[in-house]
Design goal:
The complex is a heterotrimer.
Chain A lengths: L7 H4 L9 E12 L9 E13 L4 E5 L6 H8 L7 E6 L2 E2 L5 H8 L2 E4 L13 H11 L6 H14 L5 H4 L9 H14 L4 E5 L7 H18 L2 E6 L2 H7 L2 E6 L2 E7 H6 L4 H9 L44 H5 L5 E4 L2 E3 L12 H5 L8
Parallel strand pairs in A: 3-8, 3-9, 6-7, 7-8
Antiparallel strand pairs in A: 1-2, 1-4, 4-5, 9-10, 10-12, 11-12
Chain B lengths: L7 H9 L6 H18 L1 H19 L34 H37 L1 H16 L2 H11 L4 H12 L1 H15 L2 H9 L3 H9 L4 H24 L10 H10 L2 H4 L2 H29 L9 H8 L1
Chain C lengths: L23 E12 L2 E13 L4 E5 L6 H8 L7 E10 L56 E2 L5 H7 L4 E4 L3 H4 L6 H12 L5 H15 L15 H12 L6 E5 L7 H18 L2 E6 L2 H7 L2 E6 L2 E7 H6 L4 H7 L40 H5 L5 E2 L8 E2 L15 H17 L1
Parallel strand pairs in C: 3-8, 3-9, 6-7, 7-8
Antiparallel strand pairs in C: 1-2, 1-4, 4-5, 9-10, 10-12, 11-12
The chains are: A alpha/beta, B mainly alpha, C alpha/beta.
């Protein structure tokens, strides 16, 4: 960390530990109540088949646009929703979230940070209250003095100094960045092992985003946290996380170690996402080329009546007949990369070779 | 964080934290903020003054009564004069004393019933709004039924049926008036429940009852207070109406009962204005005072309704 | 896709003469919010000019005043916001000045004169600029007569609005009337400003506009809630283009949209700009987006413009420490991964702006003069580009050796290291 030239790659934990939080084949439907009791029961198919594994000390980015289901996945993992099907395991044990006592025991280990700093803090309570509650609920502080000591310590860790001044402030007296730090401190006060961050910097001013991200990275390293970082901004995902997962319309379509997914995307949707992202490096003298036209058009489909099979097929320039029929199984592409796309196979492990003959290079 | 010895620098830091206020300091602060709120808006100040006068009269008025309100005398239907400031009734009772005596009943029973109605509607609204599901369905059904039934006619029927007295009237009014505020509060709770800090509290592991009373409810205090004020206006008016119709206990003094006896004695037809006008004016004034407070609360709560300072003046000030 | 600042021409590559006068000139604009507790200077001494067909980007964070500026230009500000100084000079097209041949003027609008200076005529400026540019289009330079938009009476302002100046707001759902179909909203505009148009020709024009922005004409009768977010934004753009304005102001039009849809909308805007040759003032906080889209970029901080440059110049050598910091706040999609820091501190509260240069509390280069003297926007010496910066580092009176971009880079990297070890 002190080495001036250290890149983020090196600071990422290379040692691949056992996953601390895993989810397999999560599915979530939100039933829609229609006026007609005899009519077709419809539902929002928010998440179709999500599987992921979070490891201590590693940050995983979940990238997707609106309607991709990424926020729903976060809330499923936080226990705020019950999965329609699929399973969640914490430390290898199935996470039973049936009653409130079990939920509380689970939440001691898994905490959630929300997107909007302006509404995630209760305007009638001061910072002390917000941080004291988790300390009391989980028994980390048993009296006023312990509480104060720990709150001060937490505020210092999130760089809200001098802590004594912040402890009695109300949310409306804090800026967006400060509020988000309080939210992070609140999550930390529980002493969790897993941090789920749902677009934690999207609503902050641009120049302070990096500060908050760097803070989270530091805390991740110090506490050896497993972090799930949800975002729609793929450049930020690259900066923050070691692993990247891409979701589209409720389905997970690609994943792997961060930079590889972004520099050599396999799935047509990932390619679309990356070519659409703003990239000022195109302006530099060595990159005077034109931006390729977007390889696909159209918009996110409705999740009430989603397309069959692979939900990207209506927009995909490489769609085949089978894409409409069913969702492809996960194909390993080597080096920890995988994708769900018939262009790369249907479930068989693949060698490096398939990726290098990148079928989609044709649309350059 | 492991528990550690509380060493020097940490202790210093703890000591630098401003101590949470003592209990009585907090009370003082609350009173001060109420005072500031009351005087910040002209409407609220005026309304509070009116209500305050009535409360004071209710508390200390009887000390100033010259006559026993029930005492009859030989001076029947006398015009207001130096001895009887508001004249006398048909049996020679001093109307002014009756008015003061009645103020106590009207104001305190009115406020008290208002409080109870508010409490009941609060419980129904919060519980239904937060839990949803069948609990909400049942409570909403009850609320809707209660809203549909015409309040005053039902109150009349019930008051006529049960034994007379202020308690009956109070219960009857509570029974027929809780639904409106319950509905409002339920809607507000539904809205507050979906705000992110409630989700964050749930994700933190907060207990359900604490979420309802410590996270959601404090955000709704404004509405509850406004609801209390508007409910109390209605309570006072309904009370007077029921008393006027003779459904109260005529022997227990209140503004409405004065009107009742006035009506019985034909005061309205007979032009005995000093008998029925004062209680009517009192009812109207109390209602007006409460309404002013209500408008004022709206202004305080929603800054957009406040009068904008004159931009010309502000520009001159800035120049 | 974007003009690189030197070549200016239409979509067919034919150059057009750079007019001697700009299209819009903002001079010393000041906007204040007058509150009982004090005056807040939302926009202070803003100067810039806009040429025909140029895309000018305004970048800034919260409190920079960029949205206030947009509303000021269109005079949509309400009390307590007031324009307290400056002028906004608009140079309308002179009679006979056209980029297209006379035949291209639509037959729908006979007898419509071009706006002339001085008295805004009864009929609005005519001539649908789209359509066939058959013969040799040659622009004729006008003689530069201008109107001060801030002095216009409401009646005359109304003639300018939407005819010459249109605005696209951030949230389409807020700007569109939810109970009217989008076709009705377009024809509404046409009815208000082109009274001579018949119902049929209005409908035709609405269909043309929808096709222009890429919405299928069968959605003419759709309501806003039936359209997706991207389509709503396109509908807003269609309404804005209904009268072929000269200037399009876009206030964060794509912020609420997904990245893919955003890219499509931006591509659309560029294509339409090349076709119709309107100028765009594009306001956003997303500087990385602006660099790809805009010809020139102005960066605002605490109500002032602190740097102004072409997109290339700004990307290759940002001068103002804030510009560098802001650029450096966007993680790169490609290139080496390295620890970055944003800018320490946060944007100032406009009620208490720091004295001197408003950025000095956060600036890694701040020195004595920065606390006391307000820097003025001046051309950067040593370059002959049009880059301008408001910073004492480039003022020989205060600082002999202006920093190079790599100096800025080093300082910010040191900051990044500092935050890494904290």
């Amino acid at each position: 960390m002190n080495d001036l030239n250290m890149t983020i790659e090196n600071s990422h934990t290379e040692y691949v530990a056992a996953p601390i939080l895993e989810a397999q084949h999560l599915r979530k439907l939100f039933p829609l109540h229609s006026m007609n009791p005899l009519g077709q029961k419809t539902a929002v198919h928010a998440v179709e088949d999500a599987s992921l594994a979070l490891r201590p000390g590693r940050a995983t980015a979940l990238v997707g646009e609106s309607g991709s289901g990424k926020t729903t996945v976060a809330r499923l993992l936080a226990g705020l929703y019950t999965p329609t099907s699929g399973s969640i395991q914490f430390r290898g044990e199935p996470a039973r979230l049936s009653n409130s006592r079990r939920l509380r025991a689970y939440r001691r280990h898994v905490q959630l940070i929300l997107q909007d700093p302006f509404s995630s803090l209760n305007p009638v309570h001061d910072v002390r209250y917000h941080l004291a509650r988790p300390l009391r609920i989980y028994g980390h502080a048993r009296n006023k003095r312990q509480e104060t000591e720990q709150i001060l310590s937490l505020l210092n860790r999130v760089n809200l100094s001098p802590a004594e001044q912040f402890i009695s402030k109300f949310p409306h007296q804090l800026s967006g960045g400060q509020r988000q730090r309080v939210s992070i401190a609140r999550a930390l006060s529980v002493q969790p092992e897993v941090l789920l961050a749902d677009e934690p910097v999207s609503m902050l001013d641009v120049s302070i985003r990096l500060d908050i991200l760097n803070l989270m990275l530091r805390l991740k390293d110090e506490e050896h946290l497993a972090v799930l970082f949800i975002t729609h901004d793929i450049a930020t995902a690259r900066y923050f996380a070691e692993d990247t997962l891409v979701m589209y319309a409720g389905q997970m379509v690609e994943g792997g170690p961060g930079d590889k997914v972004i520099q050599e995307p396999a799935h047509p949707y990932t390619r679309l996402l990356i070519s659409a992202a703003p990239d000022p490096t195109r302006l530099s003298p060595e990159n005077n080329g034109k931006i390729a036209d977007l390889p696909a058009r159209g918009e996110i489909p409705s999740l009430i009546t989603p397309p069959t099979g692979c939900r990207f097929h209506p927009r995909c320039p490489h769609a085949m007949e089978v894409c409409r029929q069913r969702f492809p199984r996960r194909t390993e592409l080597g080096n920890g990369r995988w994708t769900n796309c018939f262009l790369y196979g249907d479930g068989e492990a693949s060698s490096e070779g398939k990726l290098s003959t990148n079928i989609i290079d044709q649309d350059r | 964080m492991k528990t550690q010895e509380i060493t020097g620098p940490v202790m210093d830091a703890i000591n630098r934290v401003p101590a949470p206020d003592q209990f009585y300091t907090r009370i003082l602060q609350v009173l001060l903020s109420i005072w500031r709120a009351m005087t910040s808006s002209r409407k609220v100040a005026a309304g509070s003054a009116i209500v305050g006068v009535f409360v004071l009269v209710g508390l200390f008025g009887p000390l100033f009564m010259h006559y026993e309100p029930e005492a009859t005398s030989n001076l029947f239907i006398a015009h207001p004069s130096a001895e009887h400031w508001l004249g006398t009734t048909v049996v020679g009772q001093d109307i002014f004393s009756q008015l003061i005596n009645g103020t106590r009943t009207s104001v305190f029973w009115g406020l008290g019933t208002g409080v109870l109605v508010t409490l009941l509607s609060m419980v129904v609204g919060l519980v239904g709004g937060y839990f949803g599901g069948w609990v909400d369905d049942v409570l909403t059904l009850l609320t809707n039924v209660s809203l549909v039934l015409p309040a005053l006619p039902l109150a009349i029927v019930l008051a006529a049926y049960f034994p007379r007295g202020p308690l009956t009237i109070s219960l009857v009014i509570i029974f027929t008036n809780w639904a409106w505020q319950a509905r409002v509060l339920r809607a507000q709770t539904l809205s507050t429940r979906s705000r992110e800090f409630v989700t964050a509290a749930r994700a933190s592991g907060e207990h359900t009852w604490r979420i309802i009373f410590y996270e959601i409810f404090p955000n709704e205090i404004g509405i509850v207070v406004a609801g209390f004020v508007s409910t109390t206006i209605y309570v006072v008016l309904t009370w007077a109406a029921l008393e006027f119709l003779g459904l109260g206990d005529g022997t227990i003094p209140s503004w409405g009962s004065i009107l009742y006896w006035a009506q019985q004695a034909g005061a309205l037809g007979g032009g005995l204005w000093w008998w029925f006008v004062p209680p009517g004016v009192c009812i109207a004034l109390l209602g007006a005072g409460l309404s002013l407070i209500n408008f004022g609360i709206d202004e305080i709560a929603d800054p957009r309704l406040r009068k904008e300072p004159n931009p010309q003046k502000a520009r001159k000030a800035a120049a | 896709m974007t003009t690189n600042g030197t070549f200016q021409g239409d979509s067919k590559g034919r150059p057009y003469h750079r007019a001697t006068h700009p299209l819009l000139e903002v001079k010393n604009l000041n906007v204040d919010y007058l509150a009982a507790s004090g005056t807040v200077h939302a926009v202070t001494d803003v100067n810039f000019s806009l040429r025909r067909g140029e895309i000018l980007g305004l970048a800034g964070e919260s409190g920079s005043g960029k949205s206030t500026l947009a509303y000021a230009i269109t005079r949509l500000l309400r009390p307590p916001a007031m324009i307290t100084g400056g002028e906004i000079r608009y140079y309308p097209r002179e009679k006979g000045e056209t980029l297209l041949s006379v035949d291209a003027i639509s037959k729908d609008s006979p007898g419509e004169d071009l706006i002339t200076m001085g008295a805004i005529q009864e009929d609005a400026r005519g001539g649908d600029a789209e359509g066939e540019d058959a013969n040799n289009p040659v622009p004729i330079e006008g003689n530069g007569r201008s109107i001060d938009l801030l002095q216009l009476s409401p009646a005359k302002l109304r003639k300018i609005r939407w005819n010459d100046l249109a605005i696209v707001f951030q949230s389409a759902m807020n700007a569109l009337n939810p109970v009217m179909s989008i076709g009705a909203q377009i024809t509404d505009v046409l009815r208000a400003h082109r009274p001579s148009m018949g119902a049929d020709s209005r409908k035709q024009r609405a269909i043309e506009l929808l096709k222009l922005v890429g919405i299928a004409p069968d959605r003419l009768r759709s309501y806003p809630h039936e359209l997706s977010g991207g389509m709503r934004q396109r509908a807003i753009i269609a309404i804005a283009l209904a009268l072929s304005p000269e200037i399009l102001i876009m206030d964060e039009p794509t912020t609420a949209l997904d990245v893919v849809v955003q890219r499509e909308i931006l591509t659309e805007i560029i294509r339409l700009r090349e076709k119709l040759n309107f100028a765009v003032i594009f306001i956003t906080h997303d500087l990385s987006l602006l660099l790809e889209l805009a010809d020139n970029v102005a960066i605002m901080y605490a109500g002032r413009i602190v740097e102004q440059a072409s997109n290339r110049d700004l990307y290759l050598h940002p001068r103002h420490p804030y510009s560098y910091g802001l650029l450096n706040s966007f993680p790169a999609l490609r290139g080496p991964l390295r620890r970055m820091s944003g800018i320490p501190g946060s944007p100032p509260d406009l009620r208490s702006v720091p004295p001197g240069c408003a950025f000095h509390p956060r600036c890694p280069f701040a020195f004595d003069a920065c606390h006391k003297v307000l820097p003025v926007l001046q051309p950067v010496q040593s370059e002959d580009s049009s880059q301008m910066v408001a910073c004492h580092l480039y003022n020989p009176t205060y600082n002999a050796e202006p920093p190079t971009t790599s100096d800025l880079a080093k300082k910010y990297e040191a900051l990044a290291e500092g935050s890494a070890t904290r």
